[in-house]
Write a structure and sequence with these properties.
The complex is a heterodimer of chains A (430) and B (178). With 430 residues, chain A is mainly beta. Chain A has helices spanning 2-20, 53-69, 94-99, 145-159; strands at 29-30, 33-34, 36-39, 44-45, 73-75, 104-112, 117-126, 131-141, 169-176, 179-186, 193-194, 202-207, 213-218, 225-230, 236-238, 245-250, 256-261, 268-273, 279-281, 289-294, 300-305, 312-317, 324-325, 333-338, 344-351, 354-361, 367-369, 377-382, 388-396, 398-405, 412-413, 419-425. With 178 residues, chain B is an alpha+beta fold. The chains are: A mainly beta (430), B alpha+beta (178).
Chain lengths: 430, 178
Amino acid sequence: MIMRRTILWACAGLLACQLSGQQEVTIRITEGMPMIPVAMPSFQLNETVALKKELVEAVYETLWADLDFSRIFKMVPREHYTYIPRFNPGAIRFRDWASIQANFLISGQLELTADERVIFSFKVYDVAGERFLFGRNYGGKVELARLIAHKAADEMLRHFGEKPFFTSKIVYVSETGNDRDIYIMDYDGQRPMRITFSSAMDMLPSWSADNEKILYTSYRNLTPELFMFDIYSGKTELLSSGGSNYAADWSPTADRVVFTSTKHGNAEIYLKDMNTGQERRLTFNPAIDTSPCWSPNGREIAFTSQRGGTPQIYIMDAEGSNVRRITMEGSYHDSPAWSPDGLRLAFVSRIENRFDIYVYNLKSNQIAKLTENAGRNENPSWSPDGRHLVFSSNRGGGYQLYLVDYDGRNVRQITRRGENKMPKWQKPQK
Amino acid sequence: MKKWLLVMLAFSLILMLGACAKKAAKVEPVQEPVVEKVEEPVAKVEKPVLSEEEIFQQKSLEELNKDQILKRIHFDFDKYTIRDDMKSILQANADWLLKFPSVEILVEGHCDERGTIEYNIALGEKRAEAAKNYLVSLGMTASKIKIISYGKSKPLVQGVDEATYFQNRRAEFVITKK
C-alpha cells in the first residue's frame, strides 16, 4: 500500500516537473519517497470576537512546524505565495497554487467563542484535482491551541496513510540546581509538565505499552528502585524489591517489563509479569548485563553485556535463550533502542572518547552514524512513526534534548532550561 | 675692611646667642622610670593528642565522614578490579574498621563521565562490590557493609582530563552507624 502510494507520488512529482517546463525543480528523494508539497496561506479570522494575534500564530506556526518536520510533507515557502493573488477561501484559484508547485493546499479558520474557547477549522484541497479533500473542526480551551494544531497535523498524516505522532509526548529528566525530576512534554519540547517531586534523584523514565504509566528509577529510599507512576490516577507504586533496580522497558505487546536488577548480587536482566507480579531471571552471567529493550513484536530483547570484556549489544529471545552478539567492532556500546518497524537498532558507541549515536540495520547489517563531532550524544529513543529520534547531547555546554531524523538530518534542539537528559518518546499505538 | 669687621661681629653675636640659648635649655635630667617586669610562669598544659578511640567517641558520624577517616580508592578506566596501589588504603580502612566492630558502612561506587548512564550504574555497583569483597577478605563482616552505585551522577571534581576522570572513578566509604 505504502509502496504503491510512493510510486504514485513519484509519478505526480515527475508530472509536475514536465508541466512546469523550463522551470528547474529540485526534488530531494530519500529512500525512494519524495515529500509532498503543501501550501498553507495565513489563517482567516472570524472577527466577531477579537482574537489574540499570538493565538493565531501559535496554531499556524505549530501546524507548519509539524508538517515541515514530518519528512512526508514539504512546505512551499511563504515567499512564493506573494507571486500569486491572495488566497480567497470563497474562490480558490487552484492553477495559481499549482504554479508555485503546491500539490495540496491547507486553509484554516480560527474563531474565539464567548466562553474563551478556540475553534479551528481546517480544510485540505487537492490542487491538481481542483477539489476539496477533507476537513476537520477542533475546539478547545485557549491554552490548548498548540495541541489543536498537533491534532490537525496528525489528521494530515493519517489521511496520507502515515502513522500520526504529533500529539505524542516525551518523558525525560530535568535538572535545575540540585533537583532532578521527571517531566513530560510535547514532542516539540513545548508544554513541559513535572511529574515527580522528590528531593532524591529520579531517573531513566520509560513508558508503559499504553503510554498511561511511567516507569522510573529513584534513589528516594537510598538505593535505586523501580517505581511506576500512573499519569491519570496520580498513584505511584514501588515495583522492585532488593538490590539496585533500573532501566525498565515495558513490552509493546504484553504486560511484561524487563529491567536490570542486582538482587542476586550481579547486574542481570529480569522479566516481570505485571499481572501476576511473577519475576523471571533472563541472564546468568558474572559480567554486567543491562539496558534491556523490547523488539516491537515482543519476541526479542536487545541488551548490553560486558561478557566479552567490553560492553557490547546483544539480542536474546524473550525467554532468555538464543543470545547473539550484534556489535562486533569498537569497545563500548550501550543504550539500544529498537525502531518501531523492527528493522533497526539505535545505540550509543564510544569511539576515541566520542559518544555518538549509530543506527544498525538488522537486515542489511549496515551501520549509519547519526551524530558527528558534536559533544557527547546519549540515550536515543525512536518516534512512534520511526522516522525521528530524540537524544540528549552536551554539544552546547550543558545537556539538552535534540531531535534528529533516522538518516541524521534535521537536528534541532527542543529544550533550553536547566539540563535535560534521558528522553523516551511514547510507544507507538495501534 | 669694614665689611670684614661686620661679618666677624655678626659671627660672634651668633655664637654668643647660641651659648645663651644652650644655657637656657639646660634642665635637670629626669630619672628613668622603673619598669616593672611582668611575667607569668608558663603553664605546662598540652592539648592532648586524641587517640583513635577518643576521636571515634567524640565525633559525630558527619564529622567522621567529613574528616575522611576512611579513605576513598580509585579505579582504572572501565574496570572494577582493585588496583595494587589501592590495597594499602583498603588495608588501613580495614584496620580501623576492625577496631570498631560496631561500625557499619556504605560503600558508594562512582564512575567518570565517559560512559552511558545505564552502564555506569552497573559499573559503579561492581566497583562498590569489589571494594566490599576486599574488606570482607580482610576480616570485615559482610553484613555490616552495604553498597550503592551512583554511576556518573555524583562526580567528585569537574573537568575533562584524565586526572579528573581518575578522581571520579572511585569507591567512597561512608560510616552509617557507630
